[in-house]
Structures are given as C-alpha cells and as structure tokens.
C-alpha cells in the first residue's frame, strides 16, 4: 500500500466485521487490519462511524461492544460533519449526480486530502477531483 492518505467508506468497515459476508469479510478484514500499520493514519468521517455503528447494532452486536469498535476507529483521522461539509456535499451531489449520502462521503474524503477512497458503493476507478475510488473487494 502506498503512503498516501486513504479514506474508508462505511461498507468496507461493515464487511470487515461481518462474519456472514464470506469472501468479502475475509478480504475486508485482511485489508482493514493492514490499515492499522500504514505510515499515514487512514481517514473516516463522523457519517461513516455513525452508519457503521448502526450496522453493527442491526447485526445484533451489543451496544457497548459496537461503541468500543467505533472508539477504536476514532484513532484514525475523523472528518467532522459540519455546515461547510454539508454545503460541499450538496454541490457535489449536483455536480456528479451522486446520492446525497455518497456525495457527503466524497466531500469528506476530499476534506481529508485523501488520494484514494475505498468504497464498494461508488464506481471503481471513478475520480472525483483528486480522489480515486478503489473497491478493495473486487477480488471477492
């Protein structure tokens, strides 16, 4: 893995913790584990952590355990949701014809100065300003 800033979308974290996801679980778990050893700390947003927490609860993970996993990921760079990010997301939604939530993810990745955005939801290889989308689960 390169030493450029990397932003992680919710779905990658969810798969890394979903033992029922088969190959996607194995790949995501392996790749996320590697992220902890990068020279540059990966980035997520408050939105990613919120969605991830809710996903864990839906998978019947105890609330305290889910909270602790979120706290662990808060050791990474966390991009706050604020009014400026909201307005940027709205503009990006219009500019790139994305869903509002995906536009906020892209806006947060750009704010994090990420060069790469790991996501299964966005199109692999798509470039949004300086951020390139990579789906690390394609091998699954």
Secondary structure elements and pairings:
Layout: E1 6-8, H1 10-17, H2 23-35, E2 43-45, H3 46-58, H4 63-73, E3 77-79, H5 83-96, H6 100-111, E4 116-118, E5 127-128, E6 131-134
Parallel strand pairs: 1-4, 2-3, 4-6
Antiparallel strand pairs: 5-6
Helix pairs in contact: 1-2, 1-3, 3-4, 5-6
Number of domains: 1
> What is the CATH fold-level name?
Rossmann fold
CATH class: Alpha Beta
Contiguous low-pLDDT stretches (5 residues minimum) are: none
Strand and helix order = EHHEHHEHHEEE
Number of alpha- plus pi-helical segments? 6
How would you sum up this structure in a few lines?
The chain is built from six helices and six strands, in the order E-H-H-E-H-H-E-H-H-E-E-E.
């Amino acid at each position: 893995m390169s030493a450029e800033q990397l932003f992680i979308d919710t779905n990658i974290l969810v798969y890394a913790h979903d033992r029922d996801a088969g190959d996607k679980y194995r790949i995501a778990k392996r790749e996320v584990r590697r992220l902890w050893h990068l020279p540059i700390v990966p980035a997520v947003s408050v939105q990613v952590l919120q969605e991830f927490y809710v996903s864990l609860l839906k998978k019947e993970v105890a609330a305290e355990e889910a909270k602790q996993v979120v706290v662990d990921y808060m050791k990474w760079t966390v991009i706050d949701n604020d009014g400026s990010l909201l307005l940027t997301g709205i503009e990006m939604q219009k500019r790139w014809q994305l869903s509002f939530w995906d536009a906020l993810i892209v806006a947060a990745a750009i704010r994090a100065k990420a060069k790469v955005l790991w996501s299964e939801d966005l199109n692999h290889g798509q470039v949004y300003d300086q951020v390139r989308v990579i789906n690390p689960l394609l091998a699954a």
